């Protein structure tokens, strides 16, 4: 069954071989957030021993001494100093980061690392990319990016001109319609007058 709690650091991540005395007695990796049992000073990753105590009996898995999360103790300062000065690869080595940092600076480096995976912010995309590539991906590569109009100013000016021209055309059409109505009225009056003249001549 796969372990789901945080384990120690894999030996392969370190620049040099780490002394076996600084390995967790549960996961056998290099100690992460190290603590120890109070009597016999057996070292464990905090996550490993906390999960062991939650799932099993409240005893040290090495010496069987009574133990609980509350009675766990910090490891000696010399152990912390040794671990803090170890050079370790970034968590995102497989994504391309080649930085080697001291273990005590690892969390800060990861928070700033350009290879940290992030999700594209464009709606509909959801692709995971490196943080350093996010801006370029979202603005240039992503098929869901918002396209920029480089000629919008010119197009807006043209649209205003076209609207003005259309308004002038509509005014001219209205004037023509008015003139046509006047012409029809005059023609009707002329026809009426001619009819009257014909009637008088017939009399």
TrEMBL record:
Gene3D superfamilies reported for this sequence: Zinc/RING finger domain, C3HC4 (zinc finger)
GO biological process, one term: regulation of canonical NF-kappaB signal transduction
SUPFAM superfamilies: RING/U-box, TRAF domain-like
Molecular function terms from GO: ligase activity; zinc ion binding
Keywords from the UniProt entry: Ligase, Metal-binding, Zinc, Zinc-finger
Classification via Pfam families: zf-C3HC4_2 (PF13923), zf-TRAF (PF02176)
Source superkingdom: Eukaryota
PANTHER family cross-referenced by the UniProt entry: RECEPTOR-ASSOCIATED FACTOR, PUTATIVE-RELATED (PTHR10131:SF157), TNF RECEPTOR ASSOCIATED FACTOR (PTHR10131)
Name listed for the protein in its UniProt record: E3 ubiquitin- ligase NRDP1
Organism taxonomic ancestry: Eukaryota, Metazoa, Cnidaria, Anthozoa, Octocorallia
């Amino acid at each position: 069954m796969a372990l789901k709690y945080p384990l120690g650091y894999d030996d392969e991540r370190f620049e040099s071989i780490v002394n076996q005395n600084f390995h967790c007695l549960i996961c056998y990796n290099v100690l992460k957030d190290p603590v120890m049992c109070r009597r016999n000073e057996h070292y464990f990753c905090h996550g490993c021993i906390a999960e062991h105590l939650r799932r099993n009996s409240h005893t040290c898995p090495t010496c069987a001494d009574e133990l609980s999360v509350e009675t766990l103790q910090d490891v000696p300062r010399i152990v912390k100093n040794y671990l803090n000065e170890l050079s370790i690869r970034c968590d995102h080595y497989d994504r391309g980061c080649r930085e080697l940092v001291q273990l005590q600076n690892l969390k800060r480096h990861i928070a700033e690392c350009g290879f940290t995976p992030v999700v594209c912010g464009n709606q509909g995309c959801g692709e995971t990319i490196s943080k350093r590539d996010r801006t370029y991906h979202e603005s240039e590569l992503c098929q869901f990016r918002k396209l920029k109009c480089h000629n919008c100013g010119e197009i807006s000016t043209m649209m205003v001109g076209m609207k003005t021209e259309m308004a002038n055309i509509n005014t001219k059409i209205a004037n023509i319609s008015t003139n046509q109505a006047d012409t029809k009225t005059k023609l009707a009056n002329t026809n009426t007058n001619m009819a009257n003249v014909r009637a008088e001549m017939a009399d």
